[in-house]
Amino acid sequence: MLEFLIRIVYWPAAALAFEEDPLTTPYRDVSQLVVHCRKDRDFQIHIVDLGSEVTVASVHGGRIEPLTSALAEAIAGAEHNLYDFRGIRRSNNAQLRVPVSRFAEMRLNALMRRSQAALHIDGVPGERAVVHLGGQNRAFKEMLAESLTGAGLTIEAPHGPGAAHDPTRFYNAPEAGGVQMELSLALREQMVDGPLEPGAGEDPARRTALFSTVTQAVREALERYLAETRSDLDAAMERFERSTERFSPSLRQQGHGDHDHHHGNGGNRQNGSRG
Is residue 270 part of a domain? Predict the structure, then answer.
């Protein structure tokens, strides 16, 4: 318990320095970054909009936080929406790291508004192989923790600064909220053969079995979450239908009659006003 409290009190300060250092993250938001950087030279944005209920995102992808783009793509698969902001410079990609708390981009925002839930994949420092989970969607977060723990992963509280459940963060914008999944550097290093250099995750041949284990665990949790969400919706519809059956047929017919009568009067008034 004491260890957990220490983590909550002291980790945000360290993480804040990591996220907000003006020497390594000079751009306050995406708008400022776009003014000073060039698309296809410094960064790329990869979007797949399938009209899915879920959007998987990585806003520190490519060479900013190695392996996060590859993981986001693998988790999204062919079923879910994908938003991937990736650094593609030969060096100094850390400068493209806009803090999650201020990352807002028009197409990302549109995807989030149309989604029922979201998952953001990020990379953080850490000498221990850990997955940090946070976000407003408690049900999805609990299923992720259960699935990842069952696969042998260690789960801990959010690493990043501020409250991961902050509703202003983009991944919490969907109707049911979202989850942020932060993978420590040590964990990502175990997911590739050789050093975790920029671009390492882009070569599937270098991915270890752990990469597949994490991907599969997350996808299973996502499938379970969607299945239970749909089941809950079906149950709610059945309850609604049963409740309406309690009304007598004559009352339901009277309701329809009143509805038609009002429409008829409205039509007459409208026609009369044109005359």
Answer: no
Find where tokens 């991961």 sit.
164
CATH number at residue 53: 3.40.630.100
Measured CA angle at 84 (ends 82, 86), to 5 deg: 165
Range of the domain at 83: 2-229
**At 61, is the secondary structure helix, strand, or coil?**
strand
For the record, the structure tokens of 31 come out as 């708008």
The span from the CA of 46 to the CA of 36, in Å, is 20
> Given this model, what pLDDT does residue 236 score?
61
Its pTM stands at 0.79
Secondary structure element (H or E) that encloses residue 60, with its range: strand 54-62
Report yes or no on 55 lying in a domain. Answer: yes
Radius of gyration in angstroms for the set of CA atoms belonging to the chain, rounded to a whole number: 24
The partner residues of 57 in beta bridges, in order of sequence, read 83, 120
Which tens digit of pLDDT belongs to each residue from 69-120? 999 999 999 999 999 999 999 999 999 999 999 999 999 999 999 999 999 9
- The first and second tokens of residue 88, run together, are 């593609």
pLDDT, tens only, 184-220: 999 999 999 999 988 787 889 999 999 999 999 999 9
Q: Is residue 265 part of a domain?
A: no
Cα–Cα distance, 252 to 256 (Å, whole number):
6
**Using an 8 Å Cβ cutoff, are 133 and 155 in contact?**
yes
- Report CA 49 to chain centroid distance, whole Å: 14
